[in-house]
UniProtKB/TrEMBL annotation:
Pfam families with a match to the protein in the record: Patatin (PF01734)
Annotated family: Belongs to the patatin family.
Protein name (record): Patatin
Record comment regarding domains: The nitrogen atoms of the two glycine residues in the GGXR motif define the oxyanion hole, and stabilize the oxyanion that forms during the nucleophilic attack by the catalytic serine during substrate cleavage.
GO molecular function: hydrolase activity
Upper classification of the organism: Eukaryota, Viridiplantae, Streptophyta, Embryophyta, Tracheophyta
Organism field: Tetracentron sinense (Spur-leaf)
Stated role: Lipolytic acyl hydrolase (LAH).
Keywords: Hydrolase, Lipid degradation, Lipid metabolism
Enzyme Commission number(s) of this protein: 3.1.1.-
UniProt KW Hydrolase keyword: yes
Length: 383
């Protein structure tokens, strides 16, 4: 029996609809490096990322958290990640990208107030009380509730180094939702991962139930680029990401925060001498670049699913680049097993192409934060 054209058209549309529902959406990860105290590079990329999302969707209320399933950050990157995922009580983030960058820029001098220590007061450190106050103000709701790891719109991962166990300690919403013994106040998590030994004293913190303690220093010493930790976490967290079986199911955006400053590079190239700050720079850069190289190898068969934005032309702590300068710089890509190559596209253009894919695949479909699920359940049961 011959089918009519109308029947064929109906079956064709039904088939397309069925195929679209069967297509597995990639899980999307946003990872933000530590490095410096201002995060110029990551801040510029985040603003452009959210601006492009709003332009593509035509919705000025769209946020980065609407299109990513998982966030990770170290140091200043963790502060950005926390601010972009902190739940305002209605499932929406407390900060836009632009507001987060503006807030940290305006509060920078207050957060990093120098105090002199030692018998002759020659050593300089930053005041812990000041940065504590700023982070606590940022990561609490208008009703005064101090947020914890469970109070985030999307899963969050933040590393530090624990001097009690002399091992990395990773904070995550997944662990926090399993037990209050792994749920920590969000501002303390950011403070822990930012406790650079040369700038701050080690930061002690305990879980909300007081059963787990940590004496934290900067997570950047071991995990300045947390992208590999984020990918590993998602691959093994079957409760939140049951459809992820390998890197082919992931779409990853990794934001750097600049590299070893030019004066340090010139000194090393000229006479091979390393000052203590130069050694710290090498540790941070070495960790970040090694992770980038590893992920470049892991995604070598699906290269467009991994994007690394890193600026190479700016001294992030001494020269404040303008937003458009960061975005105009040509991108650099790690080649599998063989160094890097300079690309023809700028960082801004690469972010725009990435956003096109994000918006085309639709908003994140992850469930709300565990705290919100509990609240909804209680209301449904009439409690």
């Amino acid at each position: 029996m011959e089918l009519s054209n109308i029947t064929l058209e109906i079956f064709s549309k039904l088939e397309q609809k069925w195929l679209s529902h069967c297509e597995v959406k990639k899980t999307r990860i946003l990872s933000i490096d530590g490095g410096g105290t201002k995060g110029f590079i990551a801040g510029a990329a985040l603003i452009h990322l959210e601006d492009q999302i709003q332009a593509r969707t035509g919705d000025p209320h769209s946020r980065i958290s609407d299109f990513f399933d998982f966030f990770a950050g170290t140091g200043i990157g963790a502060v950005f990640a926390a601010m972009l995922t902190a739940d305002d009580g209605n499932g929406r983030p407390l900060f836009t990208a632009r507001d987060a960058v503006r807030y940290l820029t305006e509060k920078h001098s207050e957060m990093f107030t120098i105090k002199h220590v030692g018998i002759l007061r020659r050593r300089k450190r930053f005041s812990g009380k000041n940065i504590d106050k700023v982070l606590k103000e940022a990561l609490r709701r208008d009703d005064g509730k101090v947020l914890t790891l469970k109070d985030t719109c999307k899963p969050l991962l933040v590393p530090c180094y624990d001097l009690n166990s002399f091992a990395p300690f990773v904070f995550s919403r997944a662990d926090a939702s399993e037990s209050p013994s792994f749920d920590f106040e969000l501002w303390k998590v950011c403070r822990a991962t930012s406790a650079t030994p040369s700038l701050f004293k080690p930061f002690p913190l305990t879980s909300v139930d007081g059963k787990t303690s940590c004496l934290a220093i900067d997570g950047g010493l071991v995990m300045n680029n947390p992208t590999a930790a984020a990918v590993t976490h998602v691959l093994h967290n079957k409760r939140d990401f049951p459809s992820v079986n390998g890197v082919e199911d992931l779409l990853v955006l990794s934001l750097g925060n600049g590299q070893l400053s030019s004066p340090s590079r010139r000194q090393l190239q000229r006479n091979g001498e390393c000052s203590t700050p130069s050694v710290v720079d090498i540790v941070f850069d070495g960790v970040s670049e090694t992770v980038d190289q590893m992920l470049g190898n892991a995604f070598c068969w699906n290269r467009t699913d991994y994007l690394r934005i890193q600026a190479n032309g700016f001294i992030t702590e001494r020269v404040e680049p303008a937003l458009d300068e960061v975005l105009r710089e040509r991108g650099v890509e790690s080649l599998p097993f063989s160094g890097k190559r300079l690309m023809t596209e700028t960082n801004g253009q690469r972010i725009e192409s990435f956003v096109q894919r994000l918006v085309a695949s639709g908003k994140s479909s992850l469930p709300p934060s565990p705290c919100k699920e509990t609240a909804v359940s209680l209301l449904a049961n009439g409690r």
